[in-house]
């Protein structure tokens, strides 16, 4: 059987640009994973790791023009957005380099012997070690930041884990280019090229998660694809951690007082957030709970005006376009669902943004309207109008897990009057990031960031953005009674590396 | 259908002592889980949680005599060991109370807005919140420390999670007594009794892990039972974290130089460790790699003498006794396996300790001898004699994951001469705890402790003993742009609670 070709496709025309590669066979996946496994010793030195990450950022920046051009040709996301995304990606690589240098992520804990404890405590010295080869499944919608050189790869390398990336079929040419840049950066530091493997093809992705030498996986994508891989990871003879970011509705609550205070600004802000990047963000607000009545009507009017002004856009691929058009049509057909601006097909290759409205009470019980509680990828949102707090709470109680949950409060509510704190407490169980008077699109790279949430937002309790993302790829080991001469330098009393640590109960920083 | 009775059985006689309860129906499991879920708000206040944990310890100590008597009647572990285990359990409850008070486990990270970041960072404040109801599966071999009031329960309550415990059928009467003590302690602090639920029965255990309101599970037990529950947790519509400690061989390497230096002491120490608690520890050394030749012969001789002197003991139940007798017989039947002291049946209700020897080369390739690389619960170990380093490394490369790995070194090797560091590096990938010149039995409760390891030692990268065990039951949440007035007090700038935290990159302790 001939190897299946991997084509780069222009979503603006639907035409094939070039054949980039062929899909990897099981044997090729095996070779790639073994090469990554062999490369792990080259990442043992933290100083080498952080230098590698910084060189990777430098070289990605140096290659910017060609990378952005290829990315735009394959994704139609536009050079402005893609230039920004590449800058974010480089910032992220450098942020992880800083984390590696600081060393707090090693989580060093030292206990000297304590005969007064029950039972007595021997000499115990614990830190975290890398898990091994990490499989990274790239996202369609972030060709830089959640792909070959994205957060999963950056955090895995920071942890000391080589990666094998499964390229997303929406940007195979860019994936090859970025992998080459990473390997060039690795070579500068004497790290073998195998440290960043790259494979193409659906079957190769399945082989990858089942490979005995793959120790963990990171995934950003759909519920269906992510769940299938999660299931495969769990069904292995030796299961592995699978950190998948699968899907999110990202509910937004608008209080009556907030709408009364600034319906127009909220409507315009919402339009901007839900249509940003042609609605192709995992944190796109997909369900908005707005009050019934006059203030809510003003909000809908403002949203209508702003969304009507939005130009049609090109989605990442034609399958997504088909799914979007079918998805919004199916939702719009539900009885008593209205479409103040009808989303759907634009020209031959584009889609136009729109939104649906529905009475919140329709969502309060299981039934046909549950479709409105499922993510629909693309520039559409559902505005559910609630009559009272009971209806609002009823809808919230039916939501699956989310990456984000947002509430818009009036100035007085934000100052602590009214139900602001209560609503925050109600939203917290639903999501990993809770916002007040903001929009969920835009996920900052920061130590405090948490990009994750209850299932299906993520398949674990971890984050794929921010400083703590590195924790996903490590496991603790404790050394008991190991003589000073044999201890890893990180665990010696003298702390010549100046690591933050817990030392006989005291936190040292 | 009548509810199946749950009997307390005396393993010293095999006779039923009393009917303790009946197995819980699906409906009873549901009621118990819902009661736990309703109790979660009562754990929101950290001060209440730590006070509850301390009261629980006080009241368990106050009830000591009755508890130890019942425990001994059901497990035959003896009053000395059980009194010590209860003391350990109370120490552990208080240790977690201290962790709750300190608050470092909340992992507070605060980022003020930073316009210079790419993309700009908004106000982000992150900490960890409890996951919800935790299902705890009790162990047979630790009726106190890994059961109703054990490490999973203590760490879950510390995290703010109510628990529903699945009682182990080997000590149902004790389980009821301990649950009552915990509920009395809860009542002292106004916490509803539902905060510690208890169910009996195999089917109830399956219902529990599948219940939609159960948010995570902790398990200590066999590979077969643990894997079945892990699979059920992963197959749920919304999968949950399953922290299972399943099985471990706990390899021990004796270097040639160590054997030459102190073969007799090592043999005697090994005999003590492998027969401690009638060999019923998850960290029992189950495979010992000893050198061929004269020094190794001395070690085997010393082990022979010491094990021969060990009195027969009662295992936790008769099924275990049957499995032990069958398991050692099957192993002893392998060609060229010798039994310097033959393990097996003692009197009608006891077993006698013993050990097997085999040439290490037999274990180097897949085949019938793989049975010797599987845990055999009870007082038996396998001594594999290696001719050279190649054989040693060959066996190590074939081992599954372990809770512990141990090496005995000579004084010079411990001082850094020879292959000590190299062997430590080879053992580290195999286990969660690596020991030099000690024995793995005895798991201290300490901040640095790690009781876990690569599968099947555990189904996750977490620990079930030690301070970081609390992390298993929490997930991070970040608040973005939340006004001071609405922020949880833990996340405000002023830090009135004095929490250790990361504040704009700086570690504050």
UniProtKB/TrEMBL annotation, chains A, B:
It comes from the Bacteria. InterPro entries: Ald_DH/histidinol_DH, Ald_DH_C, Ald_DH_N, Aldehyde_DH_dom, Aldehyde_DH_Superfamily, ALDH_KGSADH. Keywords: Oxidoreductase. Its EC number is 1.2.1.4. Residues 8-444 form the Aldehyde dehydrogenase domain. It is an enzyme of class 1 (oxidoreductase). Transmembrane segments: none annotated. The keyword Cell wall biogenesis/degradation does not apply. The keyword Oxidoreductase applies. One of its GO terms (molecular function) is aldehyde dehydrogenase (NADP+) activity. This is NADP-dependent aldehyde dehydrogenase.
């Amino acid at each position: 059987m001939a190897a299946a070709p991997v084509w780069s496709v222009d979503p603006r025309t639907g035409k094939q640009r070039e054949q980039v590669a062929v899909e990897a066979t099981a044997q090729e996946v095996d070779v790639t994973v073994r090469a990554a496994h062999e490369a792990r010793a080259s990442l043992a030195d933290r100083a080498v790791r952080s230098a590698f990450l910084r060189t990777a950022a430098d070289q990605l920046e140096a290659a910017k023009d060609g990378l952005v051009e290829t990315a735009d040709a394959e994704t139609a996301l536009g050079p402005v957005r893609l230039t920004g995304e590449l800058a974010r990606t480089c910032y992220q690589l450098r942020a992880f380099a800083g984390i590696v240098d600081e060393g707090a992520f090693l989580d060093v804990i030292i206990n000297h012997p304590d005969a007064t404890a029950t039972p007595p405590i021997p000499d115990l010295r614990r830190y975290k070690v890398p898990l091994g080869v990490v499989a990274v499944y790239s996202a369609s919608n972030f060709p830089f930041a959640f792909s070959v050189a994205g957060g999963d790869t950056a955090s895995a390398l920071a942890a000391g884990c080589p990666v094998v990336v499964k390229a997303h079929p929406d940007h195979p040419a860019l994936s090859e280019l970025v992998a080459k840049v990473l390997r060039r950066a690795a070579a500068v530091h004497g790290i073998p090229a195998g440290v960043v493997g790259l494979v193409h093809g659906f079957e190769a992705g399945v082989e990858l998660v089942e490979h005995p030498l793959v120790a963990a996986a990171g995934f950003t994508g759909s519920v269906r694809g992510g769940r299938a891989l999660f299931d495969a990871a769990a069904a292995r003879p030796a299961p592995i951690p699978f950190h998948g970011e699968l899907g999110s509705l990202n509910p937004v609550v608008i209080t009556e007082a907030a709408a009364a205070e600034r319906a127009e600004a909220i409507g315009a802000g919402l339009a901007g957030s839900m249509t940003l990047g042609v609605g192709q963000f995992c944190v796109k607000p997909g369900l908005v709970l707005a009050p019934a009545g006059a203030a809510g009507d003003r909000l809908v009017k403002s949203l209508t005006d702003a969304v009507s002004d939005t130009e049609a856009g090109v989605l990442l691929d034609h399958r997504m376009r088909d799914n979007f058009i079918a998805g919004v049509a199916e939702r719009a057909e539900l009885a008593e669902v209205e479409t103040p601006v009808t989303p759907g097909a634009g020209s031959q290759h584009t889609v136009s943004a729109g939104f649906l409205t529905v009475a919140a009470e329709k969502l309060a019980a299981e039934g046909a309207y549950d479709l409105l509680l499922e993510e629909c990828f693309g520039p559409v949102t559902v505005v559910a109008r609630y009559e009272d707090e009971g209806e609002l709470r009823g809808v919230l109680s039916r939501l699956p897990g989310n990456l984000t949950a947002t509430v818009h409060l009036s100035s007085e509510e934000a100052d602590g009057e009214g139900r602001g704190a209560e609503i925050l407490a109600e939203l917290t169980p639903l999501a990993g990031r809770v916002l007040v008077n903001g929009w969920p699109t835009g996920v900052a790279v920061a130590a405090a960031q948490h990009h994750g949430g209850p299932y299906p937002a993520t398949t674990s309790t971890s984050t794929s953005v921010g400083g703590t993302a590195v924790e996903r790829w490590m496991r603790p080991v404790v050394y008991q009674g190991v003589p000073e001469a044999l201890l890893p330098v990180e665990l010696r009393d003298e702390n010549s590396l100046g690591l933050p640590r817990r030392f006989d109960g005291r936190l040292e920083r």
